Amino acid sequence: MVSSSSNGVSKLPTGIVPIIHRAEVYQFIWCASIFLVLTTIWTCLRIYSRRVRNVALALEDWLYYIALISFYGFIAALFMAVYLGGAGYHMTRLTPYHVARLTQSFLVLESLYGVTMCGVKWSMLFMLKRIFAVPRFEIVTWIIIGLQAAWLVMTVLIGFLICRPVSKNWDPTIPGTCGDRIAGYTAVSVVNVIIDCMMLILPLPMIYNLQTKTGYKLCLFCIFGIGIVTIVFSVVRLLSLNELDFDDFSYTAVPVMTWTAAEAGVAVLVASSALLRPVVDKVIQCVKSRSSRSSAPSNAYTNSQSKMNSKLRRGFVNVVDSDDSLELGMMGPRTEIQGGEGHSKGTLDAMTTAGPEFKERKGRMTIVVQKQVEQTFAEREDHI
C-alpha cells in the first residue's frame, strides 16, 4: 500500500521496493550482474589452471578467495540498497524504513568494498613478491602492502565514524554531527588510485632488466600492465563522486554504485588474468587443431609426399610428428621413421601396421610400422 506525505508526495510501500524506470538503475543492475557472472567464470578458470599445473594453493590464492567472497557480499549489499533502500528514487519518496535500509546497506558495502579491493591487491602483491625474489623489490612490496592495510582501516573508519553516533547516518533527527562525507569518500578514492599506480609501476623495472627476448618482455609488460584497466575504472569512480548530493542521496548515488561495482569487478578479474596461461594455451591449441582439420587431406598428403621424396633423393629420410606437413591421421599418436641406403635402423611406434615400399634408382627399402615394437632391420641393397 502506497502512503502519502503531508506535501502530497506518495511514499514507497514498506518492504521490497519496485524498480524505478530509470536508465541509471538498469545500467547498475546489468553491470553488477555481468561482473558477478564474469568473476565466477574467471575463478573457475583460475582453479582449473592451478589443477592443470598441479600447483598447491599459496597465500595469494587464499587472499583472492577472501576477496571474492567479500565481492559477492558487496554486490548483495548493493542490490539491498536498490530493493530495500529505494536507491534510484528521490529522498522525498522514501519512508524512514527505506532511509535506514539504504544507509545501513551503504555502511556494510563500504566495508566489503575495502576488504575486496585490499584482498585482491594483497593477492597480486604477494604473487609479485614470490615471482621477483629480489631484496629491494620485496622491501618495496612490503611497503605497498602496509599502505594498502592503512587504506583498508581508513575506508572502514570513514564509513563508520563520519557521523557520530553511527545511527545518525539513517536517523537525522537524533542529536549528533556528521562530517563531510563527500570529502571522506574522495580521500579514499584518491589514495586507492595512488596505490594502484604504485602497483602498476612496481614490476616494470624488473621486467625491463630481464635477460630475454624483446618480444617476451613485451608480453610480460602487457600481462602485468593490465592493472591499468583498474586504474581507469578507479578514476571514473572518483569523478562520479562529484555528482553525489546527500540531500538527495538515494537518487544521485546510483551512478556511483555502478562504477564502484565495475571497479571492484575489474580488480577481481585482473587478479586472476595473469594466472590463466594454461587456459589460453588450451584455447590456442583447440583453434589450431580445428584449423588443421579443416584443411584438405589431399593437400597435406601431397605436401608430405613431395617433402619425403625430396629427402629420399638425398639418401636419407627422418619423419617425426613435428613435421607440420605430414598427415598423421591414420598413423597413430607417434611415429618415427628412419631409413636410408645400405643399413637402416628405426624406432617405430604406431597404432597400425603397414608395409609401403619405396623404390629408388639405386636401391629398395622396406619399412614396417608396428605398435610399441622396436625393430632393427638391415637389408642388402640389390641393384636393379
Compute the number of helices. 12
Distance between the termini: 105 Å
Task: Give the ordered list of helices and strands.
Answer: EEHHHHEEHHHHHHHHEEEEEE
Task: Please tell me the total number of domains.
Answer: 2
- Proper CATH architecture of the largest domain: Up-down Bundle
Poorly predicted runs:
311-384
CATH C-level name of the largest domain: Mainly Alpha
Structure, explained:
By secondary structure, the protein is mainly alpha-helical. It folds into two domains: 3-285, Rhopdopsin 7-helix transmembrane proteins (Up-down Bundle); 314-378, no CATH class. Helix content is 59%, strand content 9%. It contains twelve helices and ten strands. Strands 1-2 form a two-stranded antiparallel ribbon. The protein has a two-stranded antiparallel ribbon with strand order 3-4. Strands 5-6 form a two-stranded antiparallel sheet. A hairpin with a 5-residue loop joins strand 1 (3-4) and strand 2 (10-11). The chain is globular, with a radius of gyration of 32 Å. It starts with a strand and ends in a 6-residue tail after the last strand. Mean pLDDT is 78; it is low at 311-384. It is a multi-pass membrane protein. It is found in: Membrane. Keywords: Membrane, Transmembrane, Transmembrane helix. Residues 45-281 form the Rhodopsin domain. Belongs to the SAT4 family.
